[in-house]
Amino acid sequence: MYDFKIAAADKAALYADLLAALDGLTAGEPDAIANMANAAALLWETLPGINWAGFYRNVGGELVLGPFQGRPACIRIPFGRGVCGAAAESLAVQRVEDVHAFPGHIACDAASQSELVVPIVRNGELLAVLDLDAPEKARFDAEDEAGCVAICRLLAERL
Ligand code: SME
Question: What's the short name of a Pfam family annotated to this entry (predicted)?
Answer without folding.
Answer: GAF_2
